[in-house]
Structures are given as structure tokens and as C-alpha cells.
Design a protein that fits this description.
With 461 residues, this protein is mainly alpha-helical. It contains 19 helices and four strands. The protein has one domain: MFS general substrate transporter like domains (Growth Hormone, Chain: A, Up-down Bundle).
Length: 461
């Protein structure tokens, strides 16, 4: 058997954890993080590319541009459904390496396609769909890291993996506008595109939005292949994992994660175009990255707080405050002939991003606790089921639910920008979409309170 396969893995055993488990788990975590970081960067790259496409000669309508920002989320969410179950089938090391390497297809493809304004729109749509490969990686990555850490540290580990991985969105929105202004790849990267702005001719290397990630993707895939591990006890077929579809709490947590992560990724995808549409005098490429940055930084903090206070309690207050934050966004937006207040709008949105980050972590903290409790209850009175069997089965189901709920949550990346586009098309303003979000968060609040956070809740966590 390969030395990369861990035959013994007992993270809940304090002696094993202190002697060797902690170091191995952290090595896998710190290789996983940059892989996930790059996956998020590639997944959301269209949110910045679309802002510049009209400048370089692509004659697309507003609706077509919104579609290009929404399609990666649609395909990424769908791929997550399948990726959720692949780590126990193929092994975490092998799947992380291969799924990271797959990001080369959209990164290279975008680099070539944006150099020619005559590139057919269906080709651009295909590349947008391929960026969903990055979105799919999240589910397998979180499923994999869940296996490595004990219950007491899952909130921290999953929060670090997802939070620093989520930083890929913000880093991309910060880096891409910079690298587009310079020919960093020389002749190898292709010629710049020229456009006139305010009477001044400017050069832009839009292809660098894709090419800049290629060397880092390559190095990270190699690091995953040679530096990570597979866990023998984490093996499970799809049929073994598919039991989660019969678990009520799988579907409830999918709903809650749609409210937290779905909001984070949807707001990230639509933020630049929303700013440009509502405040035309503001350049979104200079500020949009701050939203996902705040959300990503808040996620590890949320994981730590959820470990201390309980995931359900934190999630309840997150949804309550998200309703308030959306109300503040609406208050500062242009409406009824007023120009709006960009500073207030931007600060309110940053608060909203921070809350989604905390909520992302607290909901994912809830899942392992829910399924461990459920299997402990199922094993009561049955002496044939050992503690080790309870832990293994709970871990396998929790890992599958983490991945599957991540898949459902990712559809928010499609629905949020499309909600903006639809509301604008029907009413001339995105306000109707924002009011709908408040109603949705209210439902999430009630679900969290009833099933998880109230006194005598069915599954306190």
C-alpha cells in the first residue's frame, strides 16, 4: 500500500492526535488551502472580466454580461453535487491534485478567448461554465478536511480551509485589475487590446485575467499530489454515502447554507455590476474586492466563535443581522429620484459580507455535531455498535452533507446576480430582489431557531 495512504487514523484519540495526527492533519490542511484559494479565484474570474469586455470591443447586452457572471455559479453548484461524494471514492490526495489541475482548462481558455472580440458568445458561455470546475472543488475539499480533524477542532479547520479559500475571490478581484494593465508574460501572453477612455488611448491585457493563475495552479496540483494523504478508513462508495438523502437534517442544512454561502458567492459575483449599475461614477474594479475579502476573513473567525458558543446560536444571530444589513443597503440605494449614498451602501454591504462569512463557518460547524449526535442516538442500547463505528459513520455522513450542502449553497451564485438582472428588467431597479432576500433570511432564522437553537430543540448544536 502506498505510504500516502494512512492506514490508521484516529483523530478523536488524544494520544494519537498529539503524537502524529495533529501534524499530518495540518500539513494536509495547509496544502488544501492554496488549492481551494485558486479554485475560488478561477470560479469567480468572470465577475471582473465582464466589466472590461465592452471596453475591448465585445458587443454584449447587460443581460448577456449578467449571464456570464452567473453561469460559473450554475455549473459549479451542479458539479459540487457530484464532487461531494468523490473523496471517499478516489481519496483526498488524488482528487485534490486532479481537480486543481483541471482549473488549467478555463484559465488558459479565457486567456485566449478574450483576445479576439469576434470570439462567439457560445464559446464565452462554455468557458464560463468551465470556470465552475473551481466551484465544484469546494465540496470535495471540505469533505476531505472534515476527515482529518477531531470534533473539537472541526470548526477551526473547516473555517480556515473555507475562509482562506474564499479569499481567492477577493484576491482575484484585487489582482486581476492590476495584471490587466501590464504585459507580464511578454510575447508569450499576446498583444494588448487598446481602447479610448475620456479621450485617452489605453492598453489592456485582458488575457492576463486567465493566464496569471496558470503557474500557481500547476505548482499547487503538484504539491497536493506529493504532499497530501488519503485515509483508508474514509473509503466509501456512493451508495454508502447516499443515505444522507434520507436524512431530514441534510436538507435543512442545505437550506441554511444557501442563506449563508449562497449569499456570499452570489453577492461576490454580482457586486461589481451592481455598483456599476447603481453608482455609474464609481469604478467597481477598485473597490469590489473588499466585499469578498471581508467575508473570507470573517469565516475563520466565525468558525472559532462557533466552536466556543455553538454553531446554531451564532447562525441564528447571523440571519437576524443579515436582515438588518439588507435593509440598510436598500436605504442607501438610489430610489425615487434620489442619487443614493454610496458610502452608506458600501459599508452596509461590507457588513453583509462579514455576516455571510461568519454564517458560512457556523453552519458548517453545525453539520458534524448534528450527525455525530444522530449516530450516537441511533447506537444507544445496541452494544454491537462500537464507538469507533459510530465516529466513522458519522464522519462519512457529515463529510457527504458538507459537500452536498456546499453544492446547494453555491446555486446562490447564480440566483443572486440573476435576481438583480430580472428585477432590473421588470422594474428598472434591483430593489425587488433585495426585499426577497430579507424574506428568505427570515425563513432561515425561523428554521434555525426551531430545529437547532431554541431550548429543547430537536438537534441542539
Amino acid at each position: 500500500m502506498s505510504s500516502k495512504v494512512l492506514q490508521q487514523w484516529e483523530p478523536e484519540n488524544p494520544q494519537f492526535w498529539q503524537k502524529s495526527g495533529h501534524a499530518i492533519a495540518n500539513r494536509n490542511l495547509w496544502i488544501s488551502i492554496p488549492c481551494l484559494f485558486l479554485a475560488f479565484a478561477v470560479w469567480m474570474v468572470w465577475s471582473m472580466v465582464v466589466v472590461k469586455l465592452p471596453d475591448v470591443g465585445f458587443n454584449y447586452t447587460k443581460n448577456q454580461l449578467f449571464w456570464l457572471t452567473a453561469l460559473p455559479a450554475l455549473s459549479g453548484a451542479t458539479l459540487r453535487i457530484f464532487y461531494s461524494f468523490l473523496v471517499p471514492v478516489f481519496g483526498g490526495r488524488r482528487w485534490t491534485a486532479l481537480s486543481t489541475a483541471s482549473l488549467l482548462f478555463p484559465a488558459v481558455g479565457i486567456g485566449y478567448a478574450v483576445q479576439d472580440p469576434n470570439t462567439p458568445y457560445p464559446t464565452m458561455m462554455l468557458l464560463a461554465l468551465l470556470c465552475g470546475l473551481g466551484g465544484g472543488n469546494f465540496s470535495s475539499s471540505m469533505s476531505n478536511i472534515n476527515f482529518f480533524f477531531p470534533k473539537a477542532e472541526k470548526g477551526y479547520a473547516l473555517g480556515m480551509n473555507a475562509g482562506l479559500g474564499n479569499l481567492g475571490v477577493s484576491a482575484m478581484q484585487f489582482i486581476v485589475p492590476i495584471v490587466m494593465t501590464m504585459g507580464i508574460f511578454g510575447a508569450l501572453g499576446g498583444d494588448p487590446q487598446s481602447f479610448v477612455k475620456e479621450g485617452v488611448t489605453k492598453d489592456i491585457w485582458l488575457q492576463n485575467a486567465g493566464f496569471v493563475w496558470v503557474p500557481f495552479i500547476t505548482l499547487s496540483a503538484i504539491a497536493a499530489w506529493f504532499g497530501m494523504n488519503d485515509i483508508a478508513s474514509a473509503k466509501a462508495s456512493f451508495s454508502e454515502q447516499s443515505v444522507i438523502f434520507k436524512r431530514k437534517h441534510n436538507w435543512l442544512m442545505c437550506w441554511l447554507y444557501l442563506g449563508t454561502f449562497g449569499s456570499f458567492i452570489g453577492f461576490s459575483a454580482g457586486f461589481p455590476l451592481l455598483i456599476k449599475g447603481q453608482f455609474p461614477d464609481v469604478d467597481p474594479t477598485k473597490l469590489a474586492f473588499l466585499g469578498p475579502l471581508v467575508g473570507a476573513i470573517a469565516r475563520p473567525i466565525g468558525g472559532w466563535v462557533a466552536d466556543k458558543l455553538g454553531g446554531a446560536r451564532v447562525t441564528f444571530w447571523v440571519f437576524a443581522l443579515m436582515m438588518v444589513a439588507v435593509g440598510a443597503v436598500i436605504n442607501f440605494m438610489p430610489q425615487d429620484g434620489s442619487a443614493g449614498n454610496f458610502t452608506g451602501f458600501f459599508i452596509a454591504f461590507l457588513c453583509l459580507f462579514a455576516l455571510t462569512g461568519v454564517g458560512n463557518a457556523s453552519t458548517f460547524r453545525m453539520i458534524p455535531v448534528i450527525f455525530l449526535t444522530q449516530h450516537e442516538r441511533m447506537a444507544q442500547g445496541n452494544k454491537q455498535i462500537s464507538r469507533e463505528q459510530v465516529l466513522q459513520q458519522a464522519n462519512k455522513e457529515a463529510a457527504a452533507v458538507l459537500g452536498f450542502s456546499g453544492a446547494i449553497g453555491a446555486y446562490g451564485g447564480f440566483f443572486v446576480p440573476k435576481s438583480y438582472g430580472t428585477a432590473i428588467a421588470l422594474t428598472g431597479s434591483p430593489l425587488a430582489a433585495l426585499y426577497t432576500f430579507i424574506v428568505f433570511y427570515a425563513v432561515c432564522l425561523v428554521v434555525t431557531w426551531w430545529f437547532y437553537s431554541r431550548k429543547d430543540a430537536e438537534m441542539p448544536c
